Amino acid sequence: MKNYILLIFFVLNFGFVVNAQEWTVPAEEAEKVSPYIFEDDFVTDGEILYENSCTSCHGTPTENNFMPFSPPPGDPASEQFQSQPDGALFYKIQKGRGIMPVFENILAEEEIWSLIAYFRSFNKEYVQPEFDYGDEVLSELKFDLDFDENIDKLVVKVFSDGEVEEGIDVSAFVVGMFGKFPLGKTKTNELGLAYLDVDPSLPGDKQGNLDILVRVRKGYAIEKATTSMKIAEPAQQTSLIEGRHLWSTGDKAPVWLLVTFLLIVVGIWGVILYIIFGLFRLKKIG
Ligand code: HEC
Questions:
Q1: Does the CB atom of residue 219 touch ligand 1 within 6 A?
Q2: Ligand 1 near 101 CB (within 6 A)
Q3: Which tens digit of pLDDT belongs to each residue from 205-233?
Q4: Pick from 252, 260, 202: which is nearest to 230 by CA?
Q5: Ligand 1 centre distance from Cα of residue 117 (Å)
Q6: From CA 285, how far away is CA 102, in angstroms rounded?
Q7: Quick check: CB of 200 below 6 Å from ligand 1?
Q8: Are the C-beta atoms of 66 and 57 separated by less than 8 Å?
Q9: Residue 3: pLDDT band by 50, 70, 90 thresholds?
Q10: What fold, for 25-120?
Q11: pTM score of the predicted model
Q12: Of 183, 187, 189, nearest in space to 226 by CA
């Protein structure tokens, strides 16, 4: 009797586990493809988002160090993720399930696509499916960039098909040696202007230049450019051979150091020669 109950329990539980692992996505959702091109910039956006919102459970892609939940979150670089169409991943990120949070109201569609772009950057065989823009006319975007020293803000003036327009998305980043640092995201006002804060204590190069990447987006149209602007603190970088270091060239070392160094070298060679000479003498006597 007890065994029967156990068996029934086992079967039920087994069924539950199998069910739990199958996460079906409606066919029309799975067919969805990204209107945004998965280029380097977009991948970096996804990487930043991933580190802020997903690493805690999914771990570092390719390292399989996700949290041991059941069902497991999985590694975005894995076959399990990569074998699914973009639309299926998109759907799962939007809708969530169990421990996997619902991101529908937290992340914009563009942000979710950038996460998928980041996932696909680990898959060398991936070819991005083409999006059908249909009758959608992409606006021609242009922008001017300025820095207002009085308020420490970047001022971006955006033109859509030659006209200023309210509500166009503007984001800016500082481009550094190790990636992009987001300055912020905002929308243009009725004068077509968007203001973004820049911390003037950010380290620039020796002249105080910062490389600022600005991106504006309206619908599926994206325009971006990187501009070098003199708005930061000049960096106080001294190169390794500029100071007075032992490994620097001889003319930068003080005289006492050169003399001491020479005396030590001469002294050591003296001792070595003395020992060799002594050994020869021993042999002769022997
Ligand atoms: C609190 C932990 C947690 C966080 C944070 C989290 N996930 Fe998940 N995720 C899970 C778990 C657990 C699953 C498995 C859910 C299931 O199968 O029922 C999962 C599943 C998924 C899947 C489906 C995987 C598959 O095998 O089909 C995707 C895609 C995904 N997560 C993407 C993300 C992205 C992108 C983020 C960040 C924006 C994120 N997750 C943040 C826990 C998390």
A1: no
A2: yes
A3: 888 888 999 999 998 888 999 999 988 87
A4: 202
A5: 16
A6: 93
A7: no
A8: yes
A9: low
A10: Cytochrome Bc1 Complex; Chain D, domain 2 (1.10.760)
A11: 0.68
A12: 183
